[in-house]
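sanity check this record:
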Amino acid sequence: MSKLQRKEEEMYEAAYLIEMLPDCRICKHHHGQIYGGVELVCAVHPYGYSGDSCPDYQSKKRATSF
């Protein structure tokens, strides 16, 4: 197994260990598509954020102006 294959395998394993935060699905950075059996969670944290609250969270809701 090459170094690149080992690194890819480690990244896939890490992706399954990190749980997606509930806010991820309503964040404007959320992507959610699956590539090679692994979900690309978002542009900022491809495998999800491992803390309690993501410092990069931004709501998808647009502000309404009157």
Notes: The mean pLDDT is 78. The chain has one helix and two strands.
